[in-house]
Amino acid sequence: MTSTATAKPPVTAAWRDPGRWADRAAAVGLVVLLIVFQLLDPGFLAIGNIRSMLLASAILVVLSIGQAFVVATGGIDLSVASTMTFAAALFGFGFARGWGLPLCCVVALVGGTAVGLVSGVLIGHGRITDFVVTLGALSAASGAALVIADGKPVTVVDAGLLRLSAGGIGPIGWSVVVAAVLAVVAHVVLFRTRVGTHVLAAGGNPEAAVATGISVARIKVLVYAASGLLAGIAAILLISRVGAAEPASNTSFLLNSVAAVVLGGVSLAGGRGGIAGPVLGALLLTVLANGLTMLGVSPFYQPLAVGVVVVAAAFLTRWRR
User: Which UniProt keywords apply (predicted)?
Assistant: First the structure.
């Protein structure tokens, strides 16, 4: 009697499979950019520039982690950048009044979580479309930040906060360590806990999830609140980097967080997600912006480059397995 086994495709055929490349778009793109920019500018991979890129990417990585959880449920958080700005404005408000660093951090985290929590309740229990709710939250959070700060940035000088961006181990700053720890925790939650299973189930087939006893509404509230909390953490990292609490919203963080998630292989339809992919996507976008700057390319072209990358990543989803 002869035994049968599942035949494996030849190695050459496997590497010709578009799905294989689509699943690795962020990793392959990152490696290609590093090689190209290093060839064009020998100083690109200098220790100082590597440290600068890692510090810049830490903020986007944190935002992308929260966005990844939301998108995995089939939603999208358009307010993530404005929530970060709102949390930063709360931090600056407290710092200007001498509240102390710990209390200012708590206020920023609570404020960011509150924005996400309200959005999650309206989406999950109010059954309002996520696009409409988060678009409204985007405007409300941006306006509230300007009101709180009276439209003026607050200079933040604190030795403890400065260590987040200035301190670290070699080229790895403490803010990068914070982002890495959050990424590991998020990966464990998504793939090793019941909550993560429920998040993917709620995004993949909400009706089936409800039939198995999963509260999709509760999951929605949870992921949007988590996104708001991570936006609060990103606000603290941003303040430590620029040395000020800016009340003006930077919409590029919104576009880049969605781009990083798409590049990382998280399905915009929900039900499929990961953390490593969005992290690599955030690194790729940071490397792209840094490399173009070092080559003297006008900053006006950088959003164009990001847009092209996003469209290319979306096109690759046709072959994702």
Answer: Cell membrane, Membrane, Transmembrane, Transmembrane helix
The enclosing domain of 153 has a CATH number of 1.10.3470
Using alpha carbons, select from 265, 266, 264 the residue that is nearest to residue 278. Answer: 264
The mean predicted confidence, pLDDT, of the chain is 87
243 vs 138: CA distance, rounded Å: 24
Let me know: does 253 contact 63? Beta carbons within 8 Å: yes
- Tally of structural domains, the chain: 1
211 part of a folded domain: yes
* Radius of gyration from C-alpha coordinates of the chain: 21
Confidence of residue 2 (pLDDT cuts 50, 70, 90): very low
Q: Which two tokens stand for residue 128?
A: 């309002």
Q: Dihedral sign for Cα 156, 287, 175, 81, please.
A: positive
Residue 281 contacts residue 60 (beta carbons within 8 Å): no
For residue 57, give its domain range.
23-35+43-319
